[in-house]
Amino acid sequence: MNLFMGKPVLFCRFLGRFAFVMFCTSLIAAETDVRRDSTVEAVSRVMPSVVNIGTENVVEYRDDPFENLFRQFFDPYYRQRERSNPFSLGSGVIIDEDGYILTNLHVVQRARRIQVKLSEDAGGGEYEVEPILGTPLTDVALLKIIPKKAGEKFKAVKFATDDDLLLGETVLALGNPFGLGGSVSRGILSAKRRRAPKEGEPLAVPNWLQTDAAINPGNSGGPLINLRGELIGLNVAIAAEGQGIGFAIPIKQLREAAADIFTPERSANNPRWFGARLTFGEMPLVVDAVETNSPAGKAGLRAGDQILQVNGKSPKSFIQLNEWLRDDSVQNFSFAVQRGLKRETVSVQLISFQQLMRQKLGLDAQEISDELAQNFGLRSRTGLLIAGVEKSGPAGEASLAPGFVVTEINGRTAHDFLNAMTTLSHLKNGDPARLSLLVPQRRGNYIVGYQQGIVTLKSR
């Protein structure tokens, strides 16, 4: 036997093919840690993308549709904390290397100031974040990490393919239960389609995923992943009456919510009308739908077009392309698109909401912030506050004035610019625009109340 010491290849040949396989397998196994299975590998890939979301102040809201979810996840945990300590609200997952985070809207909508802490796998740093927007119907919110140095990048999670789900497959819930960072629970995908549990007001989310992976206070907003380390859902709720019944928003709805949230139309600084919906996902980006009368529609952009370049630059992601479209300093965009076998160029000029409002109705308006609602004695932020009126325009001829609040246009709630412009964009010259209004009742310089009214204008 000394002849074969230190010579495993000769030894394997001597014993024959079967012995060769068995012996070489044992050599490989000796060099591999048996503990490092698919679960460990998936966690190691995704954990650097998981963040803990916290704040020092939580704002109370009346008539909050997420009240039950908030109490379910944070009482009595919230009441027991020391007032001087930051409060860990929940979790989130980084979806873009520039620091964009997906989480639940009910996790962050009450926060005056939001901070995130990276996992220890990503260095454990703490960052301030900028809220982008949320969608109440899906309970999804988008945040943006404010980097500490130029060019700083973050580890982003990989999205799973829509509907690539196996009933009974192993899934992992990552997050920060009770503020205990970097926690993992394991279970199976118990159901691919479950209606949201209804307690009080329904959240209008018809199809959540169900899992028996443990979800606890602080997990909300964290990722639910498969064994490939891909994001398949966002942890959102538990069944209060049951054990081992948790829910997650499926990846398909997350894509749709992200596509709705991060658009030129929803820019906080300068919302502008683009009118095309892009599919959030792998490159190249594909145009999913186009509004006929929108700038994109009039320019000739079509559903199915693949976006190759924008103003001569190739976008690396959905987020980057929309960052370009939200750039206040640029109004005109040249799209190089692949349309079937042909490469086409489409030039689109974005229109600000103020331009469209002025063009159609002859007025200027602004969304109602908390400060404006308080200053004008409004009970809610629903509606658009008229800031200026063109005397010779449709609004001026109907005697509308600054301080009026537009709550509906043609029966559709005008709670923000996007809703209002979606309605106005379909109006042609001479079409009626029926406005529901709140008209301020004044006593001297003070507003003492509002009276409801309706007026019909002719669109220009």
Short descriptors:
460 residues
Q: What do these coordinates show?
A:
It is built from 13 helices and 26 strands. The radius of gyration is 27 Å and the shape is globular. The longest helix has 15 residues, at 17-31. Strands 1-2-3-6-5-4 form a 6-stranded antiparallel β-barrel. It has a 6-stranded antiparallel β-barrel with strand order 8-9-10-13-12-11. The chain has helices at residues 8-15, 17-31, 38-46, 67-74, 77-80, 105-108, 251-261, 295-299, 318-325, 353-361, 370-375, 394-397, 417-424, and strands at residues 50-55, 87-96, 100-104, 115-118, 126-135, 140-145, 158-159, 170-175, 183-194, 208-211, 223-225, 230-238, 246-250, 272-273, 276-278, 285-290, 306-310, 332-339, 342-349, 351-352, 363-367, 384-389, 405-409, 412-413, 432-443, 446-458. By secondary structure, the chain is α+β, with helices and mostly antiparallel strands.
Radius of gyration: 27 Å
Quickly give the structural class.
Answer: alpha+beta
The biggest beta sheet is recorded as:
6 strands, antiparallel, barrel
How many individual β-strands? 26
Poorly predicted tracts of residues: 72-85, 197-205
Strand order of the largest sheet: 1-2-3-6-5-4
Mean pLDDT: 82
Amount of helix: 10-25%
Number of helices: 13
Q: Any idea what the shape is?
A: globular
How is the topology of this model organized?
Blueprint lengths: L7 H8 L1 H15 L6 H9 L3 E6 L11 H8 L2 H4 L6 E10 L3 E5 H4 L6 E4 L7 E10 L4 E6 L12 E2 L10 E6 L7 E12 L13 E4 L11 E3 L4 E9 L7 E5 H11 L10 E2 L2 E3 L6 E6 L4 H5 L6 E5 L7 H8 L6 E8 L2 E8 L1 E2 H9 L1 E5 L2 H6 L8 E6 L4 H4 L7 E5 L2 E2 L3 H8 L7 E12 L2 E13 L2
Parallel strand pairs: 7-12
Antiparallel strand pairs: 1-2, 1-4, 2-3, 3-6, 4-5, 5-6, 8-9, 8-11, 9-10, 10-13, 11-12, 12-13, 14-20, 15-16, 16-17, 17-18, 18-19, 21-22, 22-23, 23-24, 23-25, 25-26
Helix pairs in contact: 1-2, 10-13
